[in-house]
Amino acid sequence: MYHGAEHKAIAAYERDVELTPESAQQFSTAHVRCGTNFLLTVMVVTILLYSVFGRPGWVVLIASRVVLIPVVAGLSYEVIRFAARNMHRRWVATGMKPGLALQRMTTREPSLDQLEVAIASLKGGAVGLRAGRGRGPGEGDAPAESGPRAGLRNRLTVRSGTANFGRWPPIGSVRPSSPS
Prior knowledge:
This protein is mainly alpha-helical. The chain has 2 domains: 30-106, no CATH class; 127-180, no CATH class. Helix content is 53%, strand content 3%. It contains 8 helices and 2 strands, in the order ααααααααββ. It has a two-stranded antiparallel sheet with strand order 1-2. Strand 1 (157-159) and strand 2 form a beta hairpin. Helix 3 (35-50) crosses helix 5 (69-85) and helix 3 (35-50) crosses helix 6. The protein is elongated and about 55 Å long.
């Protein structure tokens, strides 16, 4: 059920909706960039790519499988990325339906408590979530912003490669107590 909550929280974030469990509840549990959809895409790309080789000998068969792993992963990633940008096109939406249907087995409608956890998780990893919308480690403090996510970004400071979310001490500042 947390899987569905993650999808709803991401959908709310991507649409610049205030990140609250109530506002995220309105979105679907299906998400085109889901790992479940990616795995199905990997399987399809693998079948299509390896079918080009026919039935080679064992050495060529194994070598082609190993050598083409990065190619399969890269092509699958690009297919998912392209689909996410072009879901408004009927043929893309039709092509992604099997992956979205597969997600019905891996996601459930979340409770408000689960959405709250998913939103907290999203806020915890929000640094650099969108390209060009955050600052990298060691680049100083992020400038003050306004908007639904401003509170998160304005509280989050990144210094010397460590993030301090205003709740925990910076990494390395707390020393374990020695046994007495």
